[in-house]
Amino acid sequence: MLRKAGKMLLKKNKMDINIKITDRDGVTHEVQAPTDMNMNIMELVRAYELAPEGTIGICGGMAMCASCQCYVLNDVGLPEKGDDEEAMLSEAFHVKSNSRLGCQIHITEALEGLEVALAPES
Amino acid sequence: MIETDILIIGAGPTGLFAVFEAGLLKLRCHIIDALPQAGGQLTELYPKKPIFDIPGFPEVLAGDLVDNLMEQIKQFQPGFTLGERAETIEKLDDGTFIVTTDKGKKHHANSIAIAGGLGSFEPRKPLIEDIGFYENKGVKYFIKNPEKFRDKRVVIAGGGDSALDWSIFLSNVASEVTLVHRRNEFRGALDSVEKVQELKNQGKIRLITPGEVVGLNGAEHLESVDIEDDKGAHRKVETDYFIPLFGLTPKLGPIANWGLEIEKNAIKVNNALDYQTNIPGIYAIGDVNTYPGKLKLILCGFHEATLMCQSVYQRMNPGKKYVMKYTTVSGVDGFDGTRKEAEKAVVKSID
């Protein structure tokens, strides 16, 4: 599914929004994110291969590993953290007040212009 | 030395199902896994979560799927080396292999099936200065022998099931148990949380929440830990052991140095035929492999395991023609002497 997503993402779609993702090497990528494919930020990072396979999304998106932790860099209306996300972040490392789990951030039109940086691998 | 036909590395669903398919071909299997129990990610990460895409199961809990697989393969009597990590591999002149674990146990097999998922699970180590120095000098990431902690003072950190369960267990063994967690809420089975509450009320567990162990002290051995609360205030707690339980994270580990072709943290295999790697006799199946179009799904792992077994059969019986039989037709003959078969139809004339 991700492979397919990767290809589809290359074509600009009117359902796309723009998101800036800073990878673990500090390089910022401006990517188009589809709002109509039931994707989250973790899957977006994987689709664009901004972090090596096996270092992100280890639990598959169940808020159970924190490998997709990212820092939210600007004020975009993000949904509140759920209990699972809150609990996982309380056990994760490198956590800051702006930490979120990418897998728990669903891509919607409201996220237009979002800027995030991936937390270090741990 | 353990002798087997197929040595499977990884006791996740793919590795377990490989035992069944191998058994149908009269091939024996032995499984190595770094975790102390079978099931891989399913048992370690999400035993209580449902899976919806196992053919024939509209919904199955990950833990139940593992139990079912163990039941399905038991008549083929797989051997297990659990709690040990496959470390080195040696190819003998006759094309067979010897795999040695980190504890030095040797396994001799005709073929190797790496079903290692995302790698072997290793403890997530908190980022505390000098923690490496205190490993084996008071810092423990696993509890293998609880008796080691008898009448000792123990500080446990973490907010999940293992932190709760070990706090409960050690409260009857250790002289003092302190549980430290960054917040007041714990994520664990409800009865574990209630039990810890009860033990706290009885004074058998000291709970420090919100708190975080931020420093370790001691000359030769751990003597105390520094705990910081959410307001930045520090306190020192004297202890003999510090046990951080922050879950496990998979690492490809030593397999990465076995000379296999690796791409994107996965092992390249020939998906046109038999999921063999660049080294004849070594296969990679399930999430650990990669090929064009690869999907990391349990059901794909089952398919890959099945074709791998056929290829090993050919390796071990060169030139022999194998005729595939349906289990419904042939039944299942276990190595333990049991036989499962379809009930015979009743043939009776009607007057």
Explain this structure.
The complex is a heterodimer of chains A (122) and B (351). Chain A is of the alpha+beta class. Chain A has helices spanning 2-10, 41-47, 83-89; strands at 16-22, 28-34, 69-72, 99-101, 115-118. A five-stranded mixed sheet of chain A has the order 2-1-5-3-4, covered by helices on one side. The two termini of chain A are 26 Å apart. Chain B is of the alpha/beta class and 351 residues long. Chain B has two domains: 2-121 and 249-340, FAD/NAD(P)-binding domain, CATH 3.50.50; 125-246, FAD/NAD(P)-binding domain, CATH 3.50.50.60. In chain B, strands 1, 2, 5, 6, 7, 8 and 20 form a seven-stranded mixed sheet that branches. In chain B, α1 (13-24) packs parallel to α3, α1 (13-24) packs parallel to α7 (298-316) and α5 (161-170) runs parallel beside α6 (190-201). At the A-B interface, α3 of A face loops of B.
Strand content of chain A: 15-25%
Any guess at the CATH architecture of chain A? Roll
Based on DSSP secondary structure assignment, what is the total number of beta strands of chain B? 23
Identify low-pLDDT runs of chain B: none
Radius of gyration of chain B: 24 Å
Structural class of chain A: alpha+beta
Unreliable sequence segments of chain A: 1-5
Which value, in Å, is the CA radius of gyration of chain A?
A: 13 Å
